[in-house]
């Protein structure tokens, strides 16, 4: 927030300079050089703010991964028990709420200009030899008892190299 407040002054100056140029109906060399300097400063401010936001997102991702590691370790140790069996049926609204909550906690990738997105980000497929790690959240296509296939949201428990699943 401090970084944003600091750069706000420069953005206001850019706007005022544009308004002055409009009243004079011409672009003088003075305004051209002044705007060039203001835009250079604004770009540097934006990059600094972007770097701070990236560091904050990295810290959030680190905290989430630590919490997930603790949850998995507790589950393995038997401290965290899921005594109740999973419910057979859930209403659509409950499922949508769960999906919305999961979507809000997904890691966020924000690339720099020109940077390519990593695998499994958006529509970028994973490499052919990619294996999901235990604890990863996935959308999986499974066969139901009746034989038809359905999409589910799931957490990876293990990977079978023999079955490639």
UniProtKB/TrEMBL annotation:
Residues 128-165 form the SGF29 C-terminal domain. It comes from the Eukaryota. One of its GO terms (cellular component) is SAGA complex. InterPro entries: SGF29 (IPR037802), SGF29_tudor-like_dom (IPR010750), Tudor_SGF29_rpt1 (IPR047288). CDD domains: Tudor_SGF29_rpt1. This is SAGA-associated factor 29. It comes from Calypte anna.
């Amino acid at each position: 927030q401090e970084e944003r407040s600091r750069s706000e002054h420069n953005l206001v100056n850019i706007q005022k300079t544009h308004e002055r140029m409009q009243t004079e109906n011409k672009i003088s060399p003075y305004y051209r050089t002044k705007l060039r300097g203001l835009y250079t400063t604004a770009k540097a401010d934006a990059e600094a703010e972007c770097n701070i936001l990236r560091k904050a997102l990295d810290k959030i991702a680190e905290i989430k991964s630590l919490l997930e590691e603790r949850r998995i370790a507790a589950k393995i140790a038997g401290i965290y028990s899921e005594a109740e069996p999973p419910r057979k049926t859930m209403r659509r609204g409950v499922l949508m709420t769960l999906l919305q909550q999961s979507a809000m906690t997904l890691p966020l990738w924000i690339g720099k200009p020109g940077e390519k997105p990593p695998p499994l980000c958006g529509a970028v497929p994973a490499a052919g030899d990619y294996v999901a790690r235990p604890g990863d959240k996935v959308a999986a296509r499974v066969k139901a008892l009746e034989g038809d296939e359905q999409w589910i949201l799931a957490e990876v428990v293990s990977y079978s190299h023999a079955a490639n699943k």
